[in-house]
Each structure stands twice: as structure tokens, then as C-alpha cells.
Amino acid sequence: MPGRLHVRFAEHKNEYFFPKDYKRKRATSLPPPPPPAQDYLQVPSKHASHASFDGAFRAPAHVPSSHGTHSPASRIGSHLLPSHGTHSPHGSHSSSSPNGAHSSHTSSSSQGTPLSASRTQALPPPSPAQAPSHIPSSTSSYPPTPTRALRPRRYSDSSRYGPAYAHIHPLLARDKQLPPLRFDLRRRPRHITDAHRHHLPSKLLAEPATNPPVAALTVASSRLPWAFRIEGATRSERYDAAYVSVRDVLDGLYAAMRAPVGEREYKAYADRRGVRHAFAERCRVSSRPAEEKAQGLRRVDLLTTRIWFAGLERGDGGVWNLRLAESEVAK
């Protein structure tokens, strides 16, 4: 830490410097003057077992905090604690003790047990200009609302959370035993059926892909070097903006897998033989094989034999991991 700040008064200039580095700096204004001597006599000792530096005051015994012996709030006077309004996170609330008894705490008790009256009265009350700048005046008790979450017109507690807290729709969730969807990524989403080979109703496909709904989803796969983003295109009277529906996810996955693959990307892929075999098989099962062959490789060919949708799982940073399977039953 730098040494004590020394101030020199000259006739035509004011300078200050740190003794350790001896680096002079010109001051545009003098530092504030020290407080009067009577204020020093009222400052308690830093250690409860020692007298103050002038020997005229001995601090009272330390009062333990309700939040523990190491709580910083137990060493702060009650006058330093901010006065919050009704929306303060430290406002009046009711809490439970370890023994099950309920007690009411004010904003000062929520920070820790106040000091004794003799110590708090010895300190002069701070002026508004000296109020700590790091203590908020009034904040909301709710967490900040992420920008990507959609708020329904009818208030719901789950609507204030973003993709990191969202839950995937059961049709899109991963099931190792029996996936809820039969989705071959080589074919259009209109051919998708449920596990019992029944076509999905439009009302079910229009449901939000996550709860709460989000405006976009980022999907990644360990078998592909890309991560793609699916934008919401479904609107409903319940929500203020477009959201990602089950249909949007299925259409987005198919569109992402239909993207062409260049020669450079193909050469960078390790299993080239498997990619060529997947390309030939896709052209064979297509209703227009000549057209598919002329259009060349697509991203779905890089999946080789894992071309069945097996569900989405939550990843890091709000990314959803795409799980794939070699057959209709996920492995």
C-alpha cells in the first residue's frame, strides 16, 4: 500500500507526493482539511479490548451479529445503514429462527445486530454529502429481468426468468427409453409423428418450446462445429412478442441441417468416408435423388448415421445441446 500522503504548502504552488515512490504530482486543489479534534476523541478503538489512541475512550464489548461472528454488518453503526422504502430488499420482513420461532426484523437487523447505544451515540450522524455511495438507496427485491424472456400479459412469476431458468417442452426433452418424437433430420418436419406414429396437432406444435417462453434459442451439437440460433416466429394473444414454439424448433433444426457444406469444411472433417456414405444414402431415400445429388453435401451428412432427433438438454450459458441417435430409440 502507498505511504501516508504528505502535503507541502509553497508560496505559489501546491504539491503532494507519496514517500515510497517520490513521484511528484501537481494538485489542482488541496485535500480536505482534517476533522476537528473533538471528533477524534469520539472515535472508538479498532479493537474492542484496547483503548483509543488518546486513551480517553474504551470501546464497549463486541456485540455478536445474528448473521455470524464474521458478519461485516455487526461492526457497522446503525446510523450507517441506509433507510429503505417499502420496495427495499432489506425492508421489513419476517424470518424464521433455527428453533422455528418467527421474529420481525427491520432494515438494520437484516444486516446484523446493531451496536450498543453508547457506541452509536458517540459517533456523529453523517451528513447527506457523506453518505456511503456504495449503499443503494432503494432497490427492488426481485432479480433483474433478462432481456430475452417474454413477459405474458397476465402476470406470472416464472416470466421474469430467462433461458438459463427455462424448462424445455416435453416433446423436445430427451428420453433415453422412448423419445416422444420420431424425427428424421433428413426429412421435412411435416413427416414428424409422436412415439405412437400419430401426427401432431397444430395446437400442440404452437405451444412455447420453453417455460417461460423465450424469443430465441441457441442449439449446439458435439458432432457439428457450429452452433445455430432459432428465432421465434409464433405469436399469441397471451404474449407481447413472438416466441419460440415447438414448431419453430423443429423447422429450425431442419433448416440448419439443410445448409450446404463447402469443400473446405468437408476436408476438415475427420470421418470423410462416413460422410460420403451418408450423402449417398440420403440421395437414395429421397423422392428426388437426382436433384439431391446435384445440390451436394449438406450438414446433415456430417452426422453420418446419427440422423434421428433424440431431444434437447440444457447446456452452459443458455445453450441447448442437441442429442442424436442412430435409430428411432435413443441410446
Descriptive overview:
This protein is of the alpha+beta class and 331 residues long. Among the domains are: 44 residues, no CATH class; 158 residues, no CATH class. Helix content is 18%, strand content 16%. It has a 4-stranded mixed beta sheet, covered by helices on one side. A 3-stranded antiparallel beta sheet has the order 1-2-3, with no helix packed on it. The protein has a two-stranded antiparallel ribbon with strand order 4-5. The two termini are 60 Å apart.
Low-confidence stretches: 5-18, 45-57, 69-123, 128-162
Q: How can the largest sheet be summarized? A: 4 strands, mixed
State the order of secondary-structure elements, H for helix, E for strand: EEEHEEHHEEEHEEEHHHHEE
Measured between the Cα atoms of the first and last residue, the distance is 60 Å
Strand segment tally: 13
- Helix amount, in percent? 10-25%
Number of helical segments with 4 or more residues: 8
Give the DSSP E fraction (strand runs of 2 or more residues): 15-25%
Radius of gyration: 33 Å
Given helix and strand content, the structural type is: alpha+beta
Taking all residues together, what is the mean pLDDT? 68
Strands ordered across the widest β-sheet: 11-10-13-12
Shape: extended
List the helices and strands and how they pair.
Layout: E1 6-9, E2 14-18, E3 23-26, H1 37-40, E4 93-96, E5 102-105, H2 107-111, H3 117-122, E6 167-168, E7 181-182, E8 193-194, H4 202-205, E9 210-211, E10 216-220, E11 227-231, H5 246-257, H6 263-268, H7 272-285, H8 289-295, E12 308-314, E13 319-325
Helix pairs in contact: 7-8
